Amino acid sequence: MDLSDRWPLPDCTGVRDELRSAYADPSRGYHDVRHLTEVLDRLDELAAHGATFDATPVLLAAWFHDAVYDGERDAEERSAAWAEDALATAAPPAVVAEVARLVRLTETHQPDDADANGCALSDADLGILAAPRARYDEYVVAVRREYAHLEDAVFDAGRADVLRGLAAKPHLFHTAYAREKWEAAARANLDRELAALDR
What gap in Å lies between CA 132 and CA 102, rounded to an integer? Predict the structure, then answer.
């Protein structure tokens, strides 16, 4: 997939290419180039339906949010640190700080309602939960592949905990459009996956 025209800093293509290589690592299951492309697509969809956000830092944060992905708990922090280092001479300090903040936010996906940038990025990242059934099932298989080193029982218990945490949220999405268009489908997918794990 060619993402060249979706990088917001045309004078900083080296960083873009490093990121694209990271997402293309064959060891990745779900958090790959397809995931990055889908997040960028969802940001376009949100913007087209009334969500307002600062495009440059949000797009950069989308590129960086899974720059490091190895199943360890501090991946978001290491991704944010990569952004701070890589963008230090390529973007204004305020933009770099916002990119890093947004990347760190993807660890919890709990932006304040007034955080337009955080709401847009969180919704775009979690939008896979509302995917059609076939795509959602592909996502589930790909996530399992990323944790192939874990025994089924261990993975299933951890995955169920993650899904229950999501399901317990008052709402999964934060923008008006995503709540209207994606919330019900996402809840149905979560319920279906949880039911399979709880058998």
Answer: 27
